[in-house]
Amino acid sequence: MEAAGWPEPVVRVQSLSESGAATIPDRYVKPVHDRPSVNNSTTSGSVSIPVVDLSSLDGSAATARAVSEACREWGFFQAVNHGVPRELLRRARAAWRGFFRLPVEAKQRYANSPATYEGYGSRLGVEKGAVLDWGDYYFLHLRPPSSLSAADKWPHLPPDLRDATEEYGREVASLCERLMEAMSAGLGIKPGRLQEEFGGAEGAGVCVRVNYYPRCPQPELTLGLSSHSDPGGMTVLLADERVRGLQVRGRGGEWVTVDPIADAFIVNVGDQIQVLTNATYRSVEHRVMVNADAERLSVAMFYNPRSDLPLAPMAELVSPGAPALYKPTTFDEYRLYIRRKGPRGKSQVESLKAHGDR
């Protein structure tokens, strides 16, 4: 298929999966040290990310402490009793499963480019010859309204997809606003402080990326999504509860496989909140494994600061004993890194370190 701004013609991973080939192309084979099969520290069951009950999220000091502790210690938690209707979760999942089941020709009309990443995609980064991930996706800007969210980027099928996604985006964005208050309270600063740094509730950006990981004949050689930390503010993930795949880097360097709780969200800190909190809350590397027997679909919503505001550690969290770790940078400037390079562990946020801390 035509490259449309990409360095090589785009290959849909779903088409590779459905071809019946017994091996994957060399372009998807990861270096030995990045393959999931050779990392003996991969764990599940004995170690897990925190689970936080959000039923008392508004104004509860105990809930704010639980959210804050999870953000400090793990950068990840599973949120239960979050208030987003279960039926809406099912509608959003069903609509996007329906899209990825369409013929490739129907999906291809929404093909994306590196200019905005909006639409149907199969790679990140524009480096020629890069090792690719085993996954397709659909990326959309939901807020603020702009030319980026043009009507021609919304799939016409399934019929319920746009309504379900927009309603889902509103509900999850509202949850993010409440979580931001809890995160601020857990830092000992006024509840609305983080939201102010994001440009207020109206200034914050909301994007959605629906990830589709087809069956893979050699899952031990590749990844659905390479190790990275999220470049934005906060991510709320509706995982595929039937098939595990998400792995989070633990403090000891081990990979912890997440067991999704039915109808829960997996929430994680992005690089921008790490910067604003002077690394009190930290973004954490994570990656996605693929499966030989089952496809996976997840819906990630990104809650981001206003893209033209310079972000740096908040003054309340800086002192002579805790100097500012990061130089001011706008989110517009920052996200160009991942658009050029693709996922690269924690290297992007490290690039923001203030000169004296390099």
Q: Would you tell me which CATH topology applies?
A: Jelly Rolls
CATH architecture: Sandwich
Strand content: 15-25%
Major β-sheet profile: 8 strands, mixed
Distance between the termini: 42 Å
> What are the segments in which pLDDT stays under 50 over at least 5 consecutive residues?
none
Q: What value does the Rg take, in angstroms?
A: 20 Å
Order the strands across the largest sheet as they lie in space.
1-2-10-7-12-5-4-3
CATH class label: Mainly Beta
Order of SSEs:
HEHEHHEEHHHEEEEEEHEEEEHH
Rounded mean pLDDT is 91
Q: Residue share in helices?
A: 25-40%
CATH superfamily: B-lactam Antibiotic, Isopenicillin N Synthase, Chain
Q: Indicate how many domains the architecture comprises.
A: 1
Going by helix content, strand content and strand pairing, the class is: alpha+beta
Total helix count? Answer: 10
Number of strands: 14
The 3D shape can be described as globular
